[in-house]
Amino acid sequence: MLRFIVRRLLQAVLVLFIVSLLLFTWLRKLPGGPIDAILGERATPETRAALRKTLGLDQSIPVQYLHFLNNAIHGNFGTSTQVQTGTDALDLFFQRLPATVELSVLALILAVITAIPLGYFAAKRHGGFLDTGSVVLSLVGVAVPVFFLGFVLKYFFSIEWHMLPPAGRQNPDLDATRITNFYVLDGLLTREYDAAWDALKHLILPAITLASVPFAVIFRITRASVLEVLNEDYVRTAESKGLSERIIRGRHVLHNALLPVVTTIGLQVGALLTGAVLTETVFGYPGLGDALAQAFRQRDYAVLQVLILAAALGYILVNLLVDVAYAIIDPRIRTR
Amino acid sequence: MTATKTTAAIALLAASTLALSSCASSKRDEGAKKSGNAANTSATLNFGAAGAPATFDPFYASDGETFRVSRQIFQGLVGFKPGTAEVAPRLATSWKPSADGKTWTFKLKTGVKFTDGTPFNAEAVCKNFKRMDSQNKAGQTASEYWLANMGGYNGAKDELYQGCTAKDAATVQIKISRPTSKFPALLGLPSFSMQSPTAMDKYKANNIKAQGQGFVYSDYANAHPTGTGPMKFQKYDKTNKTVTLVRNDDYAGDDKATVKKVVFSIIPDETARKQALASGQIDGYDLPNPVDWPTLKKDDNLEIRPAFNILYLGLNAKVDPDLKDLRVRQALYYAINRDQLVKSQLPDGATVATQFIPNTVAGYNKSLKPYKYDPKKAKSLLKAAGKSNLKITLWYPTEVTRPYMPAPDKIFNAIKKDWQAVGVKVTPKPLPWAGGYVTGTQNGNAAAYLMGWTGDYNTPDNFLGNFFSDPKGQMTVGAYPWGDKLHKALSDDDSVVDEAQRATAYEKLNKQIMEDYLPGLPISSSPPAIVFSKKVTGVTPSPLTDEHLWTAKVSK
Q1: CB distance from A77 to chain B under 8 Å?
Q2: Which residue of B has its CA nearest to A80?
């Protein structure tokens, strides 16, 4: 198992190197650049040239890349020019990470705790009202664009009913204490329960929005998988042995049906990051997705590099975790 | 077995949470929180900002979001009369130029202190100027406003600033190399605000570095900006994207803050800002899209600013030699139905421009009539120039809205249609604003393009100088036979000391530019807006976006 993990991690380093090379070259081949975003309407060609030189953007791309690589090895990934001017891009990543993790975890929990039971019961009552109803719901989840769902939720819950805030992470007037920068957790740890509750309220609408796609996908896979397992001989045998419904459900049906579901959940973690870009923009939620969208619009090279590399690394790690989880659920995989 | 494992896991989690919480404790100021919204003067104004401030040291800034924050914390020697672009006393109570216009004597307000207790006096003023003038290499490229207005550092050849002398505690003399219309108005720019010399020394304000293809600012700029203004900096919560300013209770001016706090919540998406306002989460935001004006007028306080900008169609004869012929440029101008364009594409209150400066600037020539929409005349001019089959590439920006240009693609389409109607073949060239548009147009690569400018202060040079003073700049006026003449006129008129004489000179120049030169086609001036919720009053909209948010009255 250890050797397997080490080999996968070494592969990850290679993948990251290739991604960084492609990314670096691609970014600099895009028209424009940070100079435009920094200087605006007034600048003369001379001012632009001076700034390019100061920032080292006048050097050839290979030279710039070597500089980047050399700095990156020493933990310096460059400085944000626009998203949070003057902030080290890696610091910015760590400042924004808790927000996105908090949001993604809540969204994933919402998706999993609704999709798996719903998928199971839909399959059990195949063709019934619950089944049809939830299939339609899951179709809506996939079909409705994230930004539209966000707008609709905000319209009702924030603007019409004033129940939940439409943007941001926490009311700044609360002057909450920060420890981990996971706001809900911080509120609980410091016993500032109003701050925790306020942070949670800010999370609800974006989390529902972000959960819509993973919910639909997990639901459909669970349903299909349970349907398949229900028809297996061993389930029929268990039933004819007179085992209780609970034991059949737990030991035989869900245990076997969950394997593809776990893979799907793993893949959805990657999809959550993609979804976070839209969701966070729509909700003005200060996470990584919001930073990525802004960095792209304003050509903030350092931030784009760090965020995209981190996303690639995240993807690799999640896949590794899924493989490990597989091995735990199904020992046959471990022995191979 | 499974049940035992789950229970154990929950117990472990609970125990670790308890253990962690015992060493974590609330650090917040309970007193501050409790005061809440009890009375009007303890209210918070929550303003939705479109972007994070780049730095809290306005000297290194050039963007509106940074300046908005700076304007609440800092003051300059001069300021602007609320709601106008007129220069007004601020930290200086009066000023007088010498006969040659090169030595300016400022009388300073007395009894003023920076928020760290450092006294504000002539010595502090000179320390500020010395600091601005003595920048390291990175600082010289980062302080765009000094470079653009003062022309250099440390006594460089063309530098405008020549030195500062403290005559006595309340009198300061500033020397400049030539008389200019910019003085003293430019001292009202947020970049040239007075900052505490003690705090700047302590937190190494000039310690700016270019690192990893960006600028790294000093501790001063990141966390210790210290001014004399009605508000003072409290904190920038980066993970929550909010900037909090609190009232400066020792503020020496008459316009003391009526709110206890001003909070800037950074929400980059415009629709998200609009919804945050509608839900009551924020109390206002800047530059609402003109499409939303009718709804905002109904539900909120939509404040329309006086128009202080110009949208123009830049032309570059070096890129497209067909444009060298004045008749061709005139034909292109006559072909555009600007009345309709302004009515259909620009917000209420927008006007057709007759010259390259808005009508509130001294030197505006009232006698100039707009080029009337006349497609027939356009066609005959093109024919006379032998360019009946003119082809032109028209650039327009995407992924951007500017105060003078709310919807660039729609403006482009209107112009394209008008030009096609007179037989001009138009090739569209859309580019993202930060994705090549600005670089391309500023470097003089675009034959025809949409661009504009919002004034920094009320002088014609701030507009005309920006457009035409560089012969190799965006409109490459150096390519025309009259280029040198225009260049000289710009610098001569700027140096006229007497204000009335200067205005007359500029009126003449504006006429010449429009009738004899026509290097580009001024399109319109349009008023941008700022919006507050119904419960906020007391903020005067400013053509310079110099809104005094601290004067807001927030009702419950």
Answers
A1: yes
A2: B214
Residue B171, number of CB atoms within 10 A of its CB? 16
CA angle A286, A290, A296 (to 5 degrees): 145
**ipTM of the assembly?**
0.86
Question: How far is C-alpha B72 from the geometric centre of its chain's CA atoms?
Answer: 15
Nearest to B302 by CA among B503, B103, B477, B528: B528
Residue A286 CA to chain centroid, in angstroms? 14
Instruction: Give the Cα separation of B186 and B146 in Å (integer).
Output: 10
Question: Which one is the CATH code of A89-334: 1.20.1050.10, 1.10.3080.10, 3.40.50.1820, 1.10.3720.10?
Answer: 1.10.3720.10
Average pLDDT per 10 consecutive residues for chain A, totaling 336 residues = 79 87 87 74 76 84 89 88 90 94 94 93 89 89 87 94 94 91 95 95 96 92 91 86 83 83 82 85 93 88 91 82 75 59
Q: Can you give the pTM of this predicted structure?
A: 0.89
Which one-letter DSSP state was computed for residue B187? G
Q: Write out pLDDT tens, residues B135-188.
A: 999 999 889 899 989 999 998 988 999 999 999 999 999 999 999 999 999 999
Q: Would you call A85 and B54 a contact, using CB atoms and an 8 Å cutoff?
A: yes
Q: Does B268 touch chain A (CB under 8 A)?
A: yes
CB contact under 8 A, A86 and B221: yes
Residue B87 is given by DSSP the state E
Structural domains of chain B sorted by starting position, each given as residue range(s) with its CATH number in brackets:
5-303+529-554 (3.40.190.10), 309-525 (3.10.105.10)
